[in-house]
Amino acid sequence: MDVLGLDATAQAQAVRDGQVSPRELAEAAIAAVEALDGELNSVVYRRFERALEEADALPPGAPFRGVPILLKDLGWEQAGEPYGAGSRVYESVTIARDSYGVDRLRAAGFVLLGRTNTPEFGTTITTEPIAYGPTRNPYDPAYTVGGSSGGSAAAVAAGMVALATASDGGGSIRIPAAACGLVGLKPSRGRVSNGPSMGDAWNGFSTSGFVTRTVRDAAAALDLIAGFTPGDPYDAPPLPGPLAAEAGRDPGRLRIGFVTDHPLPQVPDVAEPAQAVTRAAALLESLGHHVEPGHPEPLGDPGFAPAFGAIVAANVGATAEAVGLIRGKPVELDELEPRNAALVDAARRLGATSYILAAQWIDGYRRRMASWWAEHDLLLAPTLGVAPFPLGWIPPDDPALAQERTAHAVAFTAPFNATGQPAISLPLHRTAGGLPVGVQLIAAPGREDLLVRIAAQVEAAAPFEHGAMRRS
Fold first, then answer.
1. What whole-number distance in Å separates Cα of residue 180 and Cα of residue 174?
2. Residue 241: CB partners within 8 Å, gap ≥ 6?
């Protein structure tokens, strides 16, 4: 049995049925990492011996007993384990305790194999940190895997594990999923706790989730980590029941608007994302949904990027200050990559009044955006706002050009981090050269259930191809 070719749900069933043991499943995943990751550079920290010991000690009964998983090396903290966040400044930092998300993964029976590559502090959408080197796309090693959950996406796309953890502050679940031909579900704000190390992340822009190969895995995995924890600053609207039960449930006839035009001016290479949406719109219409052009008018508001950028800069500056306090010496700008040095410098010059005004602008933007969903169920849009791009396209030593290109790339993802709405990227398109191009569906706040229903319907009608899987 090709156990690594199964999704996580099927792997867990194989363990329950006695077809494979937790150790055998972990050993297969470890062998795949060792065989494939030398070229891809997706796994930056390996804890294989401890993982096998933990696999042997797993008690029966956990829903994902024995299923191997990799953790993104940003958030998802593990007590006593190395933590890098894609940066050299964490070298002397020791993590005090597991995050709530890791607690819940352990309780579910997952076997934690190691940690995956991410850009420094997760502040860009390509995974090319100076500290650990670039992660390469399993479909074409000259191309990006996206970011910031790029190491996780590469590992899943290559077939090392069936799923890996991720997080999304401006597109960082959905963009790597799109770049690597995977499913990427960004939850609603407040659905997943960021505790205990923090309350909100990036003023609520950032949330945690997974990259997976199937919709049912995305739903079941989110079920495991979802839930309000006392002291959390947000609580998402309640779901009608487990998300895993929504996969396969009839979504009904939905009102879906779609957008193919880029909301920003003078953006190159938009043909592939537009073609992907056009094809997806036709598929949704063939499934009986009412599909028509249309999108929230504020989507292209020129005030969004400055407000969003000010809040991100302030939070990155706070991260640098916090690391300095933890390690006992301030973080100097020359310790950071140029992009983050510029953000930290901007944060140090940003006044409290400007920060509050930016947050208030986002408050108004969120209300203006939300009104569109009174007349629609879903928005269909590109995931990545530009065509798949090679490594180096976002230059590490030119912050101004990097910022411009990043703004083009995240134009369809970052707005929904600001609004806190759930969104899912689906692998429905390929370029002529075979590179994946994702499309995303965005629902009203709290409607992950609707996203899982429609995504599962789409998956059944047009099964996702995972041509990058290259297990030995």
1. 10
2. 449
Mean pLDDT for the stretch of residues 431-458? 98
pLDDT at 472 over 60: no
- Name the E strands within 103-173: 111-116, 163-168
The set of residues, in sequence order, having a beta carbon less than 8 Å from that of 34 and lying 6+ positions away, is: none
The Cα diameter of the chain in Å comes to: 61
Q: Tell me which DSSP letter residue 372 carries.
A: G
Q: Are 132 and 43 in contact (CB under 8 A)?
A: no
Helix (H, G, I), strand (E, B) or coil at 59: coil
Peptide bond into 148 cis (omega under 30): yes
Closest by Cα among 243, 217, 205 to 164: 217
For the stretch 391-426, pLDDT in tens is 999 999 999 999 999 999 999 999 999 999 999 999
What is d(CA 341, CA 313) in angstroms, rounded to the nearest whole number?
10
pLDDT for residue 468: 80
Name beta bridge partners: 164.
Answer: 70, 211
Q: In terms of C-beta distances under 8 Å and separation of at least 24 residues, what long-range contacts does 133-138 make, across chains too? A: 133/41, 134/41, 134/391, 135/40, 135/41, 135/42, 136/39, 136/40, 136/41, 136/391, 137/179, 137/180, 137/435, 137/468, 138/36, 138/40, 138/180, 138/468, 138/469, 138/470
Instruction: Set out the domains of the chain in order of their start, with CATH numbers.
Output: 3-298+373-461 (3.90.1300.10)
Say which amino acid occupies 262: H
Q: Rounded CA gap, 166 and 66, in Å?
A: 20
Which residue reads 């958030």 in tokens?
75
Q: Looking at the annotation, which residues are catalytic?
A: 72, 148, 172
The predicted model gives 44-55 an average pLDDT of 98
Q: Is 440 left (phi over 0), alpha (psi -120 to 50) or beta?
A: beta
Q: What tokens appear for 179 in the block?
A: 């770049």
DSSP H or E stretch at residue 447: none
pLDDT > 70? residue 471: no
Q: Cα separation of 237 and 435, whole Å?
A: 36
